[in-house]
What does this fold into?
Amino acid sequence: MTSTQSGMLSGKTALVTGSTSGIGRSIAEALAAQGANLVINGFGEADEIEAIRSEIAATCGVEVAYDGADMSEPDEIERMVAQARQRFGGVDILVNNAGIQHTAPLEEFPVERWDAIVAINLSACFHTTRHVVANMKARGWGRIVNIASVQGLIGSIHKAAYVAAKHGVVGLTKVTALETATSGVTCNAICPGWVLTPLVQKQVDAKAEQEGLSNEAAKRKLVGERMPSERFTTAEQLGGLAVFLCSPAADNMTGISLPVDGAWIAQ
Ligand code: NAD
It folds into this structure.
């Protein structure tokens, strides 16, 4: 069904990094369903990305641009934001979502993986934010939603770079909220527990292999070990939360990190 851009976010533009897959894609779809024009970003096959881009545009009746900027490259981030501003007049909603994972004990952690995780999962959030925030403040409205993780609030073995980067995202969220507190701009972090996306399927596969389990048994075990709800969080639920954070109800909600984790960190 084609909507007519009459949603709550009609006339706004959202830039969602890492939105060719998983959580970012669902958040982009949820914002577009509320009428936001989009810049989507991320890696993948050109025809698959074009299919995602054109389907969201057709389904939601919004404009959707794709930008393939590599979030580990500060110059490409600057160019992407400049092009978004040129095409849409500004970025009203920034969702810092692109992320990668690598697991290994500290003494074996590849330095190159540490650098890549910190660059993509943390430094990219700083670069996008520094390029959009002045314009948001000048316009008197903006939403910055950082996709952190429960791993931004607690630690886990073998995830040194990821845990460090996600704790950094939670810290950056607080500073951004403080520096924008009187401006009409809010900045919050979402901290999901396990969400069954390609990023997590790799960890399911590793568990199945290490413990000789089927794919289904490995999924149940992964979730059951951490999440009292015994259910994956879904990407659609996170899309709904991102929309809420962009709604008037969340106007004075800023600087916080919201777990969506089936009571993982309540333990
Ligand atoms: P995913 O692998 O499905 O998607 C990651 C996206 O990031 C893809 O679009 C990919 O192309 C993009 N990306 C990766 N490297 C990039 C780069 N250098 N430049 C531009 N784009 C790049 O993963 P996901 O599970 O949807 O993860 C999205 C975010 O959610 C990540 O920040 C992740 O840390 C976080 N997160 C995921 C889970 C989970 O259980 N899946 C839990 C907590 C937090």
